[in-house]
Amino acid sequence: MSQLTSIATALPDHKISQEDVLAVLAKARGSALPARLKQILGNSGIDHRYIARDPDYYLKQRSWPERAQIYDEVGRTLAERSAAAAMVAAGLQPTDIDVIMMISTTGTMTPSIPSRLIESMGFRQSVQTVPVFGYGCAGGILGLRLANDLADANGGQNVLMISLELCSLSYDYSQFDKKNMIATALFADGCAAAVLTGKGGRGTGPSFRAFDQKTWPDTRDMMGWTIGETGFDLVLARDIPTFVTKDFTPFCDAFLAEQGLEKSDLGEPACHPGGGRVVEALEGYFAPELSGIPATRDVLKHHGNMSSPTVLFVLEKLLSDNPKKPILMTALGPGFTSVLGILDPQEQVDE
C-alpha cells in the first residue's frame, strides 16, 4: 500500500451563506418559500459555501457551452492551485510526478484537464494522465483507491490525484421541484489534490491499509445525472439517511471485522457528509464508541457538499491534528455505491 504524502484544497472566489441561498430561491420562485420547505433547507447543517459565479448568474438561462466554459476556466484554476500546493507540501516538483489522475463528475473536457496541466505547470511530457468520470460523491475515496493502485505500480510511482467538482453548474432555477431545491441548498464547488507515493525511502507518514466497495442492485435511481437540455440534470430520489442505517451499517461492520478492528479502535472517521441528516445517521452508527464526527460536521458547515472533494477536506483537517489511531474513510455515491478505506496515521512497520 502507498503512502499519503500531502493534501491541499482550493475554493472558488464567491462565498454564499445559507440565508442568501434561501433568498435567491425565493427570488427565482417569485414568492416566499413554503414554511416547511424553508425549514428543511435551513436545517442542512450548512452555514456558507463557495460557488463558481456570483449568485445572480445562476438566475439566468445558461447553455451547455456556457457551463463548459466555466468548468474550463474556474475548474482549471482550482486544479492548478490545489495541485501546486499539494506538491509543495510533499516536497516534490512537477517533474517528480509520474501520474496525474483527476476525479470529476460535474464536467468533462477532451483533452482532459490533467492533459492541459502538463504544459502550464511543467510536468514531464511522458507523465501519465488518467481522467476519471462518474464516481460522484464517492469519488474522493474511490479516487484514493485508484491512486493507491497506480502508486504501487511499476515498482513505485508518485501520483498526483485531483478531485474537482463544480456542482453549481447543475443548478437550475427554472425547475422548482423539491429535489432541485434541496440540491441547491446542499451542493457547492471545490477542489482537493493529494500526492501519493509508492516509492521506497518514504519515511513513516500516513499509509493506506485497505479499501472496499459495494454497489447495491436496483438502486440507480438514488443518485446520478441525466442529460438535460442545458447540461447535467440531477437524479436524487431516495432517502439516503435511511439507507445508511439499513444497508451501510452491516457493510461497514463487516469491513472493520475483516481488518481486525472495532469502532473503539478508530480515531475520528473521515466521512463524506452528504447533508445534515446523513451526518446524523453516521453519528448514530459510530455511537457510543465514538462521540461524534466534528471534522465532518465542520467541513459541511463551512463548505457544503462539494461532492467528491469533500471527504478530502475532512481528511486534511483530521491529519492536521496528528492523529494516533487508524482513520476510517466513508462515502456514498451513484450506483448506489458505498466505498470504505482505512488510513493508518503512521506507516505500519514490522518489528
Automatic annotation (TrEMBL):
Point out the coiled-coil segments of this chain. none
Superkingdom is Bacteria
Chalcone/stilbene synthase N-terminal domain: residues covered? 4-196
Pfam families attached to this UniProt entry:
Chal_sti_synt_C (PF02797), Chal_sti_synt_N (PF00195)
Task: Cite the entry's keywords alphabetically.
Answer: Acyltransferase, Transferase
Q: Carries keyword Transferase?
A: yes
Chalcone/stilbene synthase C-terminal domain location is 213-329
Q: Which InterPro entries match?
A: Chalcone/stilbene_synt_C, Chalcone/stilbene_synt_N, Polyketide_synthase_type-III, Thiolase-like
Q: What CDD domains does the record point to?
A: CHS_like (cd00831)
* Similarity comment text for this entry: Belongs to the thiolase-like superfamily. Chalcone/stilbene synthases family.
> Which PANTHER family does the protein's record reference?
1,3,6,8-TETRAHYDROXYNAPHTHALENE SYNTHASE (PTHR11877:SF99), HYDROXYMETHYLGLUTARYL-COA SYNTHASE (PTHR11877)
What protein name is recorded for this chain?
Answer: Type III polyketide synthase
